[in-house]
Amino acid sequence: MQNINSIIMNSYKFCLITDNADLIAQTDLDNVYVIQTLDQLKSLTPFRVISVDYNFILNHQAFDLIKNKFQRLIFIFNSPSEKITPYLFKQSLPDQIVFASNYSNQIFFEQDLVLTETQQNLTYLNLAADLNQEYENIKLELENKLDETKLDLLASRQKILDSNIRIEAMRKILYSVTQESDLHRIETVLNELLPASSKATWIKIIPVQHKQVLEVELNHQLNTTFKSYALPNHAIYFIKGDQKNFKKDDLNLFAKIRDIIEINYNREVDYTNLVLTQNIVRKAFAEFNHPLAVMDSDYCIIQSNAAFKRDITESDKAPAFSNGHLGQKFTENINGAIFDVYSNSIALDNNPTKLWINLYKNKTEEHYFEQRLNQTAKMKELGIISSSIAHELNNPLGGVLSYLQLVQMDLPKNSQWFSDIKAMIDTTLRMKKIIEDLLIFSRTTNLDDQGTYKVADLLQESLSIHEIHFKNENIKIVNISEHADLSLPLSKTAFRDALHFIFSFYIEKIKGFRKISSQKTGLIEVKITPDQNHNFKEMSYSIEFQGNCGHLDEAEKSKDISLLALSKCLNDQNMHLEIAVPKQNWISLKVIIQKS
């Protein structure tokens, strides 16, 4: 029964405890559960709102039975004269006191509404408290994170500051090191700049062979910490004044400084080698014996050497080719000389213009040498022919001369035939002289034909042999040695060959010079004089030849075939040759003769 009543009571929110029939009659029994007896009260379950008839509780002393069974409590008094005892009021603390005359079902709903509002307010307060607590927790967490962030930010700022200091130090070090090439100066710069951005207090750069001595001193005498790095042929030491190890950032900085110094050192070495190579190439280009020039497709000269300016042109534009084109090999006649031209294209970095390097190799001497070889072959054949002719004519001519001389002896001086016979004898003598010259010309050089000869006569004889050649080339001879009284022991044929080489040299040089100048007439001066510039213990003479035949440089002195043959021929006779340029476009050949 109690269980059933409990179930029934639990289905109500409101409860009325009274045995007053009037109150019960005014009660909405559908919403309010009514307890009328003490037994029912003893089985009371909790209600949201309980209205208690004060007289009922007081009469039955049942307050303890309803204690803790309500959320809102209402006392109902039957009249205003009833008063609640202080003890009961203190124990119950009713939420509302009403008189029976004012009783209605509305008081339950009002208290329920108050309770609901109170619960809502409590819920709101609890929610607000939870939210406040969550807020405080979040706030505390954010403050902690903010503090951590501040600390991280300060640490980051310090790192940034340290990094900026290191970067600035690296910038200054990099700039300063790149401006210096001397390792001692670099060491001084590092000692000035590096201590401000690292724990290193001393930097030392030494040759590799001094490493052991320095490390012994650092370890045992100075009691310091150091870090060394290898450089080309040297070592760099970063030294600290205490026993603490370097930080990782310092070690990274030291490694970068080492790399900078090594790069700068290698750059300086490469630059020095590059400058040396450039100087070698520039010097080789300038001193190259053959004409050399770099030009564009319009023959405008970019660069040329001294030989080019001397032999080709001094202007800013090279003469255009007539026998070939740029990029080819061909032969060209330039300024009366014959050149083999070797033209090749070259490509320069960052230069879109196509350039050409042209090498001019002077083959004039080779050309003349070939001509002389041909001429020598012809002369050899001519010598054989002339020798045969001379030998064939020599004996008959001797007979003719003897016969004419006998006829002249038999004729009276007043004979009308005397002059004719004399003219025939003179003609025969001239023919005899020509045949003798032919025999001399065709005879092989032999140093064994030694004898004492008058130099002026041999000189005049050689001039006579070349007389026709001089006339054909319009060359005039000024011989001021005809009356020189100088007789020497020498080989006639060898000395004659030497004179032949001299005159051949002047003839070829005058012909070549005439092609590049306006000169029409060649001139050769010959004189024999005592030479005062030689050893005074022996009497010296010189035969000097001078001709207006153009320029002769040092290279030609050692290459000209006539001069080489002449020098060899004179040396074989204990004579020697001196070559000089007395004035512009004149060449002097002086044969020095020692006379004991």
Gross morphology is rod-shaped
Oligomer: single chain
Please mark out the parts with pLDDT under 50 across 5 or more consecutive residues, or reply none. none
Average pLDDT for all residues: 80
End-to-end distance, in Å? 179 Å
What's the CATH architecture name of one domain?
A: 2-Layer Sandwich
Relative helix content = 40-55%
Radius of gyration: 69 Å
Neighbour order of strands in the largest sheet: 2-1-3-4-5
- Which superfamily, in CATH terms, is the homologous superfamily of one domain? Histidine kinase-like ATPase, C-terminal domain
Which class best fits the helix and strand makeup? alpha/beta
Biggest sheet features = 5 strands, parallel
Give the DSSP E fraction (strand runs of 2 or more residues): 15-25%
CATH level 3 topology of one domain: Heat Shock Protein 90
| CATH top level class name of one domain | Alpha Beta
DSSP summary: helix tally: 18
How many extended strands?
A: 20
How do the strands and helices of this protein lay out in sequence?
Elements: H1 2-10, E1 14-17, H2 21-25, E2 32-35, H3 38-42, E3 47-53, H4 54-60, H5 63-66, E4 70-77, H6 86-92, E5 96-99, H7 106-178, H8 183-193, E6 202-207, H9 211-221, E7 225-231, E8 234-240, H10 248-287, E9 292-296, E10 301-304, H11 306-311, E11 329-334, E12 337-346, E13 355-362, H12 364-410, H13 418-442, E14 450-454, H14 455-465, H15 467-472, E15 475-479, E16 487-491, H16 492-516, E17 522-530, E18 539-547, H17 554-557, H18 561-572, E19 576-580, E20 587-595
Parallel strand pairs: 1-2, 1-3, 3-4, 4-5, 15-17
Antiparallel strand pairs: 6-8, 7-8, 9-10, 9-13, 11-12, 12-13, 14-16, 17-18, 18-20, 19-20
Helix pairs in contact: 7-8, 7-10, 12-13, 16-18
